[in-house]
Amino acid sequence: MHASTDSGIDGLGRLRWGSHVCHFYRTERELEDVLVPFLRRGLEQGERCVWVTAAPLGADAARRALAAEVPDLEAREARGQLEILDHDGWYRASGGDDTARVLQSWLAREEAARRAGFAGLRLTGNSGRGGGACCDPGFMEYESRVSATFARRRLLGLCSYPLDGCGAGEALEIVRHHDKTLSLRGGAWEAVAPRRTAGEESLQRERLERRTAELEAALREREELLVVASHELRTPMASLQLLVDSLLRPRERASRSAEDERRRLERAAAQCERIARLLDDLLHVSRPGRRAELLPSDADLSSIVRDVAERMQEPLARAGCTLTLSVPPATPGRWDRLRLEQVLTNLLANAARHAGGGPVELSIAASAAGPVLSVRDHGPGVPADARVRVFAPYAQLEGARRLGGVGVGLWVVRRIVEAHGGRVEIRETPGGGATFVVALPWDATRQGATAAAS
After folding, report:
1. How far is residue 377 CA from its own chain's centroid?
2. Closest of 137, 133, 142 to residue 101, by C-alpha
């Protein structure tokens, strides 16, 4: 990121976005001399600003000092351009000593600022927290992680440190953990950059490279999310459309009983509920670094299979497929029902797409470890050298684009099954075709707890 912003302070001038700077002060007046113009300039430039205050300049005094320079301060606060926070309240709300949570709170604020149309997020805080120790190893590690986290983001941070009680060695340590340091010399504020050793430069580069890789991974995740959203919502939307169309056709309505109409309406309502749950999950996944969590509960796998089979009857019939079920009356266990519905829906949709015109068989067999689901088709099959690759995102076999799909359905299946602690594989079907085998544990809750402990 090469964009820069005016700091509002003569000694600093323009700063690159992602900069993390500090300054030393002795008096409340020196604190105001730096922080007020710093924040005023940010407000004037259309940035969102956050001021975390502490003694000797508390929240009320800080607001009065800034209001003297920004006449419409109250209006800017009302529309969310400015937050003036008391340090202790902010510290508790942002995660306290949990560095990761504190940093995530800044990133969340920056993202919210960008979504709201602001140019970026400018923040400042009194790191001395009102006369405490000048610095400690834990806080310096936090400052180091701030520098790595802010890099390449629309964030600009200014930390204030009290000189009282701060020795020369501590001051040098503070300087080392910031991009620039503002210090009062001869009545004027001047900025100096730390001189780093070759080893420190190498470490800084490693941190920046690591952070860059994390951000690139997050962007890839967002792109994948859009594809998954499109794919996962398409099937229930198509099924819902078929149901609504059938309910609207007068001739069909006249030949159906009231009970049949009621069942169709119930299925339509269930599809609406499923779409709403999928949207909630997709919003959850869209948060940086997060994955959708399983919600295991007591469930009957046989019932899940029968419900999905009923919903998929029409799409399969349109592809010329006949569906045969071989399931026990009940298969109780603990799983995430919605997720397993996704697995079965994707596997049946895959069969309809690639084995159209042929029979499809869906069965459940029990084992000591858990139930085993099988979806067998009699289409062209999957070559042996592609039976692992098809579960990767965006994987496409020869002719798959002609048949439709973007190559994420089986990837979603694998992720859900593995999240349950199970496995999925493809076996050859005698006489031609493919058999997708899903092995699940009886209790996904216990499996998840074991994985978390390990």
Report:
1. 36
2. 142
